[in-house]
Amino acid sequence: MARDRPIPYLRRARIIEQYDDPETGRSMVRVELPDEPQQQLPKPWQPTQRQAMILAIIKRHYRRGIPAGVSIATLHGLIVKKWEAECARQKPTDPQLVKAVPGRDMVAYTLRNASLIP
To answer: Of the candidates 18, 32, 62, 94, which lies 20 to 30 Å from 78 by C-alpha distance?
Structure first.
């Protein structure tokens, strides 16, 4: 006999058999649970053109990875210095990309999503 188990969440099930158990005085039900639908995996992070340029600058300067003692301010300063050269190299389609150097928050967000810093 099956143990009484709490149902963690409400689901639809097909009833196969229903009967009264004379020993326990309970009404018993056998059900068929549907197969669980596969959950979709989240899409992998895809950098925008601006984020790809940030990553290109950082990876070109720190070829062996970013050392542990380097701060976001240092990385942002590096990007400010090399932003125009990277714009000339990649030729972005949006002219506002050339004018607007990304801020510290954008640099930190990009590097964390790319798993280059903790």
So the answer is: 94
